[in-house]
Amino acid sequence: MSEKTSRIPGFYKLGMEERLKKVAEFSNLEKEETECFLKDGKLSLAIDKEIADRMIENVIGIYELPIGIATNFLINGKDYLIPMAIEETSVVAAASNAAKIARVRGGFKAEASDQIMIGQIQLLHIPDIDKAINRILKSREKLLEIANNQDKVLVSLGGGAKDIEIRKIGNGEMLVVHLLVDVKDAMGANAVNTMAEAVAPILEELTGGRARLKIISNLADRRLVRATAVFDKKAVGGEEVVDAFLEGYMFAAMDPYRAATHNKGIMNGIDAVVIATGNDWRAVEAGAHAYAARDGRYRPLTRYWKDEEGNLVGEIELPMAIGVVGGAVSLHRKAQICRKILGVKTAKELAEVLASVGLAQNFAALLALSTVGIQKGHMELHAQNIAVMAGAKGDQIDEIAQRMIKEGKVRLDRAKELLKELYGN
Ligand code: NAD
User: Fold this and answer.
1) Each residue of 405-417: pLDDT tens digit?
2) What is the CATH T-level fold of the domain 116-217, as seen in this structure?
3) CB atoms within 10 A of CB 326
4) Residue 211 dihedral angles phi and psi, to the nearest 5°
5) Is residue 9 helix, strand or coil?
6) Which residues are registered as beta bridge partners of 227?
């Protein structure tokens, strides 16, 4: 067990500065690192102008999101504080609550596979498909060598192109070569795309065809991560709640309309951490949903069942194309500090954290949905947001939010009325 604990009771009641202090203690942040988030009580910018201007094109400024910390996470026996960058109410609280329940039975167990990404080379107009396949297979070693010549750093770390697969698509009008690349601690798109482009001319020579697209696949089904947790039946609220939960889960298992929302909830948690760590959330999203539909029907990314003692067991499995080096991960200062807060050193470990967060998020949402309903938990912050939208400031926000909740009328028109009644504005 780790000596540090992510179990920080009352964390949510602290002020922003006090919370940051706790996180700094947990993750040994330097003063300069904490000042990246808050300086003299004021929010600091994520990235400086120059870096932003180099990251994308036609830059006019920087777009900010709140970063919250999910507490209570115990994953493979190690405690984690989880930075989440997200605009949606309740996600951070829900993840923390789920992690608290999972802790009762030892937290999450997670295991990521090797970091294998797929580069695709599309070959068209091949005169003899079977002969082409034969010639590609015979040239396997040469193709891998050419691919590996593109990235000596990756190869020196034990990564690089490891294998080749060939897929016939349609009635032989297209041959697709898959280059399987171990990208180690990178997300890998640049590395894989460069390799795919380098082998394409040789594939044209070997097949007598034309190479068209050469690009990574976001269906990263060779780079999977799985996490499981046992949610104690008493901590969940008793056997009846476990049964209600499983009935709710069955809906997602049987209906793609529900499964889409179920998986969206999973991604609430995963995306927030993917964004906080500077990773490409579109790549992770694309991989997750393609994997959810891998057998031709869209399905939930989690499974739940009861163990012999009646506890609820949850499991998640999905592709996880993220990195701790390369891309924006290495450029974005706050992303680097978020990684330090997490204390993850490898892409494998980050993938294991992400899968655990996804499972936690899904468990929390289904628990709320199958018992009190989702709106109850949302209401407090939702009401505050409505009050702000109506123009409330400072103490007015809480006052108006509380009154609307009490009245059961959390609506913009009511917030405006109250603002007028109470404060004359
Ligand atoms: P990158 O090229 O910046 O960094 C990866 C490189 O870092 C490796 O090739 C290797 O040479 C080096 N490296 C050093 N230490 C390493 C280690 N421990 N493990 C692995 N590599 C190490 O970045 P990338 O990860 O190849 O590409 C990611 C970027 O590509 C993201 O910004 C993503 O948005 C973008 N992208 C995505 C897609 C897609 O998903 N379809 C397509 C194109 C680009």
Assistant:
1) 889 888 999 999 9
2) Alpha-Beta Plaits (3.30.70)
3) 21
4) -85, 125
5) coil
6) 110, 316
Mutation test residue for ligand 1: of 54, 181, 187, the one with most atoms within 8 Å of CB? 187
Q: Ligand 1 atom closest to Cα of 192? A: 26
Q: Is the pLDDT of residue 1 over 50?
A: no
Give residue limits of the domains in the chain: 11-112+224-371, 116-217, 376-423
Is the Cβ atom of 388 under 6 angstroms away from ligand 1? no
| 215 CA → ligand 1 middle, Å | 13
User: CA angle, 354 as apex, 196 and 330 as ends, to 5°?
Assistant: 55
> Under CATH, which number does the domain 376-423 receive?
1.10.8
Whether the CB-CB separation of 304 and 246 falls below 8 Å is answered with yes
Please indicate whether residue 182, judged by its CB atom, sits closer than 6 Å to ligand 1. Answer: no
- Which SS3 state, helix, strand or coil, does residue 316 take? strand
Quick: pLDDT tens for 355-365: 999 999 999 99
Residue type, 391: G
Among 22, 264, 306, 409, the one annotated catalytic: 264
Within 10 Å of residue 129's Cβ, how many Cβ atoms? Answer: 18
283 lines ligand 1 (CB under 6 A): yes
Closest CA to 274 of 331, 224, 338, 211: 338
The DSSP output letter for 123 is E
Residue 43: per-residue pLDDT: 80
Are the beta carbons of 36 and 337 closer than 8 angstroms? Answer: yes
Rounded to an integer, the average pLDDT of 185-212 is 98
E strand or H helix at 110, and its extent?
Answer: strand 108-112
Asked about 3 being catalytic, the answer comes back as no
Kindly give the distance from the C-alpha atom of residue 8 to the centroid of ligand 1, in angstroms, as a whole number: 35
The arrangement of secondary structure in 11-112+224-371, i.e. its CATH architecture, is: Alpha-Beta Complex (3.90)
Q: What angle in degrees, to the nearest 10, is found between the helix axes of 281-292 and 256-276? A: 150
Q: What pLDDT digit, counting tens, does each position of 246-281 carry?
A: 999 999 999 999 999 999 999 999 999 999 999 999
Vertex 14: Cα angle to 13 and 16 (nearest 5):
125
